[in-house]
Amino acid sequence: MDSRISLALANKLRMLFEREDKFLTYPLGIGFDYRYLSFMKDPMVSGLSLQEQLNNKVDFARLMNIIPDDRASYSPDSARLLWSAMKKVLQGAYYASSGLTDAENQRLEDAIAFLTDERTQDGMTVRVSSEAVSKYYAYKTVYDATSATYLDEMITAESTTGPDGERLRAEWTDRREKQLRDARDKALQDWMTLGYKLQVENYQAIQRQLEPRKFLHLEGQGYLSDIELSEILDVSGSPIGSCTTFFSPNDVFDKTTAWARISLTKTEIDTLVQNASADIKVLFGAGHGADDGIVAITLEYNNIPIMRPWFRPEFFESRCWKLTDHSVVSNGAAPRQGTIPAYVTSILAVRNLVVTRKKSAAQQPIALSILGSTALRDIKFRSAVELDTNQLNAERLALGASLVNSSNLFKAQPASDRSLINKMQLTVKPEVLKPTPAAWAPVKPITMDGRSVLLDAVAKVQPSQRQGFIYAKYLGTTIESPRLQIPPKPHEVPPAYTEGLVSEHYELPGVAVMAYLCKRVPKAPNPDPGLKWI
């Protein structure tokens, strides 16, 4: 197993994607075959049976919603699921009484009108992305790919030593840097002028700031109802306790969709291994060992966002809520700790590889630990899985029991606290309860210890309406893959034609996950003392 390449690749991915509020964690062995990944397509297109489609939906949702620890080493705990933790937070939250001024209310209405459209599906009104937002993410995808390619090749030019390094730096300085910079700058300009970058980000900031304040009591219930409506239904139409989760672009796993490339040279690998931090050296090894004969590796990869129609991360940024039990969702420190320190925002996946190495080493199988312990030529990925129905039923009952626990927690509060909490009128978005074009009109409020009224109402929504809600969100929030505009590398003599070397092509039977890109949750709750608290 070649731990040197995995260590170098893990370090380079960090340089490309990690930010102050984002980190990579490495699952070491997760992958999916293409048939598995068609779980959101019509079974007539995917070839999946209804049971296989259900199995794969649930399996993918559970994998993507395990709450990660804030560290490189991925230690999944299947009992820590994002929808369960989010539901518990929402059930235990209470809110400030401050609202919006007329001017703020108009700014919010303008933002919502710009960012969303309404789609009617099976008698339900569902909010989806506006055309401007869809274009925003399409052009952002192109910009992100060109920006990552620029940084990737710059790192290679700076990290490669010896004659190859001198050649790469000369090429970078003379032509390639300007070529990629121009492509990146054009992608940014297109994003700004054609993708509504400034307008979308401005309105998103307004919505994040003002919407929780406008719907102080409504919004917690609206979030809860979205979780309920997003529950996956079994083949008989009954919810099974897992919430639909998918990816965008929706055609990203089609074999004809173009992906970007990332490359490593031999001396670049040496430099990246030497400069790797201690935590990933513990994970992949220190990089010592005999010469593996590998002189270069190129991978087709993609950074694929995870979509959750039921999840509103802006809730964590809001400062107008507290928790009745004073628990910590995120402590805001480094590394984050709490019930939801972080969540997976995207997967860094690889599908095809080219390994160039000495002919003398060509008979030795190659296994990259960042992709798992299996040799590349023998690798197989997750296909249709079998559901553990007993476990799912237990989790479904646990979610229902959490409502009772929430009510009991409320009743256990001192009488003075209960009276204060009961003064808070809780309302829900009406499209949850009945078809209506008035998406934000209030309905009859319910008190804190009457939360089950909301969920009873949601439970009366027909299975076809639940499915309609999900597919409206799927079709209305995902995009199709835009055409990447990355200039090809200058023509070089393929290494395979260099005496003593051979290039080996590995077309994987699906995609392997190199890493999960995770977003750190800000300090939450973080109530604003300047607000009026009931």
Folded structure, characterized:
- With 534 residues, the protein is α+β, with helices and mostly antiparallel strands.
- It has one domain (37-66, 75-269, 304-343, 378-490).
- The protein is built from 16 helices and 13 strands.
- It has helices at 3-17, 43-46, 50-64, 82-92, 102-115, 131-159, 162-193, 197-214, 218-229, 266-275, 278-284, 314-317, 389-412, 415-422, 451-459, 463-477; strands at residues 22-25, 31-33, 93-95, 116-121, 124-129, 231-233, 239-243, 246-247, 260-265, 294-307, 321-323, 342-358, 501-520.
- The strands form 4 sheets. Strands 1, 2, 8, 9, 10, 12 and 13 form a 7-stranded antiparallel beta sheet that branches.
- Helix 9 (218-229) runs parallel beside helix 15 (451-459).
- The longest helix has 32 residues, at 162-193.
- The protein is globular.
In terms of topology, how is this protein built?
Layout: H1 3-17, E1 22-25, E2 31-33, H2 43-46, H3 50-64, H4 82-92, E3 93-95, H5 102-115, E4 116-121, E5 124-129, H6 131-159, H7 162-193, H8 197-214, H9 218-229, E6 231-233, E7 239-243, E8 246-247, E9 260-265, H10 266-275, H11 278-284, E10 294-307, H12 314-317, E11 321-323, E12 342-358, H13 389-412, H14 415-422, H15 451-459, H16 463-477, E13 501-520
Antiparallel strand pairs: 1-13, 2-13, 3-11, 4-5, 6-7, 8-10, 9-10, 10-12, 12-13
Helix pairs in contact: 1-10, 1-11, 4-9, 4-13, 5-8, 6-7, 6-10, 9-15
